[in-house]
Amino acid sequence: MKKDIYVVGAVLVKNGKILCAQRGPEKSLPLKWEFPGGKIEEGETTQEALKREIQEEMRCEIEIGEQIDQTVYEYDFGIVHLTTFYCKLLDKEPTLTEHKEIKWLIPEKLPELDWAPADIPAIEKLSNKTPLR
Ligand SMILES: Nc1nc2c([nH]c(=O)n2[C@H]2C[C@H](O)[C@@H](COP(=O)(O)OP(=O)(O)OP(=O)(O)O)O2)c(=O)[nH]1
After folding, report:
1. Which residues of 13-43 are buried (b: 16+ CB within 10 A; e: fewer)?
2. Which atom of ligand 1 is nearest to the CA of 9?
3. Which residue numbers delimit the Nudix hydrolase domain (predicted)?
């Protein structure tokens, strides 16, 4: 049986744009675009996991807002349960640590990137919405 992997992703919004992050070439899902975040560890709430992951990956603090989507996608390596939340940066700009590249895009342009398959429902929701604050 495939393992269940619980993942949380941050849809960071700034000036009406959303932060998109590209996975490295050596990782699983190489070069796919995703939302920064990662696996929820045992004993952590989803929110705690998201704050920790963004601090680790982007070296910045966030405020977590509304949940956007919750999807389940079966990859060859496991079943990813992805929950995404709107987030705002509290202080400094994100620093790249493990991603290959980041881009800030208006929601309408999100579908132009090659997203991890688990992200597609969230991308559809976001790109069909009225402009973000
Ligand atoms: N952070 C993040 N992960 C995503 C998204 N969409 C998606 O399918 N994933 C997958 C990729 C990974 O398999 C898993 C996230 O775990 P992680 O961030 O700890 O993954 P990782 O690549 O560093 O670790 P691993 O796969 O090498 O074990 O969820 C997304 O939007 N954000």
Report:
1. beeebbbbbbbeeeeebeebbbbbbbebeee
2. 32
3. 3-127
> How many A from CA of 37 to the centre of ligand 1?
7
Distance 106 CA to ligand 1 centre (A): 23
Ligand 1 pocket test, pick from 2, 39, 84 with the greatest ligand atom count within 8 Å of Cβ, gives 39
pLDDT given at position 66: 97
**Fold designation for 4-127:** Nucleoside Triphosphate Pyrophosphohydrolase (3.90.79)
pLDDT at 130: 63
pLDDT tops 60 at residue 43: yes
Q: Which segments of the chain does DSSP mark as H helices, in order?
A: 46-58, 120-127
Reported ipTM: 0.94
